């Protein structure tokens, strides 16, 4: 991005909410003064000599500092209607929670009944900035209703952060009383939303070509800026420790780099290897730049602090930010406002390069990955309690505040966005789609594997099921396998989880919400699916963590025909105390999953024989002995073995009952006393 920084460039500022208060109001002795943006009238009298003198002064200072600066003539010719925002940038914060996820969350089921939501809107809390062509960012003032509308536009893909533009009104003094532009004059620019609804407008210049950071593959050059204020306040850890925690420079194995490398299967690399030695003398440690600012953390706004840090970094590096860096992270010692105003661990720009950490939160990989997720255009992940980021199955929730915990990835909504953005997964093979229609009588069934087993998937099972709603708010189903790169997931481990995205078909920045978590044999019903008057039921037929890869067998049924299918399947099974009979029929899909005990096991709750009804005088049955399931045939009293199946193996009986279709017999688990078997007949 070709920015043109000036000494008063505002890298972070916002209005509305705790984050906005911390950024926009001055901190004095631990409190806040009521500094507001002030309206001024532009001075009309300027002399050519003063303009030229000031331009020469700024150019000379920049040359001495070896940095790029704005052209003073841009400020002199500024009019409120001649230089509108070139884009609108959204800012989001990683807030601290009053309590963490419950310890037994992995063992619970949630939401047996889900009301259908086609166009509901989650209350999110993003803030918005106006990016000026001179490189500054100014808070946008508007009503609560206007901010709500902008947030909805952001979450349904209508407004793309750092790309889209909207109609605003501006008023600003560009010169001092003496007619000379000053670096502080940009602080007095007022950007206001005109009355009424939000109106999208064309961008000024080619914003798209220098934005769109939502690319999830390749090397991501990251610069960390460790800030010391005028009073000597900085995080106590030195640059070497910070470098180690982010990049694993000196052997740390739980890092920001390790999380992205794991979840992407090596396709995305966070790196401090800049491919050049020109910065080596300026850095305190690989990837870490130490700067000192001439203002206090205790008596300055967040905006002023980050602004001073950015300019100190640009001066020391001799370049304009972000330059070749994909992300620039400002590490601050703390925030000194009220609890409400400072109740966040970090904040970042959406679809942008800048983010800020506060206090000791820089050392928690999950916090930084969360904020980098915002940089990469990922939205928050909300939980079943309705909270904005209480989905503890996903790093875009708020799950991990620990410097030695980081084996956790993203939910299927985020993974879908990543896959469709030429990211870590293959959109064509790793995503299954189910469009139910609105008439009822349709269904989907298949196996889902967890993201953690993505590299162990010879059968090409999908990792995501996207259930279409006909609107932008689709539902997503996944198997939340708790192993490997996702072994430290904090909620619904080894369970099936169901989510809804707020808008944009899951393709853009948008809030997602966890709607239900299901264990083996459980189901949930979404009432009045697509306002059809019929329900959609999601059944977990089986969760098998013994196979490799582990999988969840999931069935989605819509309407009365699906329910009739379930009843028919159940009716085909007849049993005695020791025998079960499976009648597949010849026209409809039928399945059965159950256990077969050995004859001498003493197990009374499982049958010792499963008869496979053939519709003829010849009978076929299954028995379990010596660690194998035997397929036996009895023709006129003459028994013979026609096959046997080991654990984790499958036998296919072709042209079952002369239908032209096959019967699949799979042994999923086997021990000394019984075996778990699945029968599938699917025309």
Descriptive labels:
683 residues; alpha+beta; 11-stranded mixed beta sheet; 10 helices; elongated
3D architecture notes:
By secondary structure, the protein is α+β, with helices and mostly antiparallel strands. Helices cover 16% and strands 29% of the residues. The chain is built from ten helices and 36 strands. Strands 3, 5, 6, 8, 9, 11, 12, 13, 14, 15 and 16 form an eleven-stranded mixed beta sheet that branches. Strands 17-23-22-21-20-18 form a six-stranded mixed beta sheet, with helices on one face. It has a six-stranded mixed beta sheet with strand order 27-28-30-31-32-33. Strand 1 (27-28) and strand 2 form a beta hairpin. Helix 6 packs across helix 8. The longest helix is centred in the first third of the chain and has 18 residues, at 48-65. It is elongated and about 95 Å long. The model is unreliable at 1-18, 20-48, 57-83, 98-107, 179-185, 206-212 and 561-577 (pLDDT under 50).
Which percent range describes the beta-strand content?
25-35%
Q: Main beta sheet: strand number and arrangement? A: 11 strands, mixed
**Number of helical elements:** 10
Mean residue pLDDT: 79
Q: What is the molecular shape?
A: elongated
What is the rounded distance between the termini? Answer: 56 Å
Query: How would you name the oligomeric state of the polypeptide chains in this document?
Result: single chain
Low-confidence stretches: 1-18, 20-48, 57-83, 98-107, 179-185, 206-212, 561-577
Helix content: 10-25%
How many beta-strand segments?
Answer: 36
Category by helix and strand content: alpha+beta
Radius of gyration from CA coordinates: 30 Å
